């Protein structure tokens, strides 16, 4: 996929798939089918989307399937990493470049992300937990590691 516009992030550079085979395979199948296949989290039936970022160190195109948490045309991007002590690698990509592509169906579209806090974070995190209840367990685990799970809101450009 080549998406470039003057003054916007260039997502046409080299793509580096995830080192986790299941993630790389899901992204490949999702994109190849225009979102018709590999569009749920494993066998759960819970819808996913694919987010494309630019690596903050490598400069390479990176893609990750995430829970589909949509509200009024915006998406929650929840950096849970299953409640682990550290943020997922793509979290740092968002801090370095707030422009992403989100594919929720046949086409990827441009979004800007912003990290939210306070009541706004609480509302978006709850939307995520409504879609994927284990997020609540992840926050308890992350808190035990001294980490609040970051939440971003992706808004269309």
Architecture blueprint of SSEs:
Elements: H1 21-32, E1 48-54, E2 61-67, E3 70-71, E4 74-78, H2 89-96, E5 99-103, E6 108-116, H3 118-131, H4 134-144, E7 151-156
Antiparallel strand pairs: 1-2, 1-5, 3-4, 4-7, 5-6, 6-7
What's a quick, concise take on this entry?
29% of the residues lie in helices and 26% in strands.
Describe, in plain words, how this protein is organized in 3D.
- With 157 residues, this protein is α+β, with helices and mostly antiparallel strands.
- It has one domain: Pnp Oxidase, Chain A, CATH 2.30.110.
- The chain has 4 helices and 7 strands.
- It is globular and about 40 Å long.
- The two termini are 18 Å apart.
- The model is unreliable at 1-6 (pLDDT under 50).
The CATH class assignment is Mainly Beta
CATH fold naming = Pnp Oxidase, Chain A
Helix and strand sequence: HEEEEHEEHHE
Using the CA coordinates, give the radius of gyration.
Answer: 15 Å
List keywords for this structure.
157 residues, alpha+beta, Pnp Oxidase, Chain A, 7-stranded antiparallel beta sheet
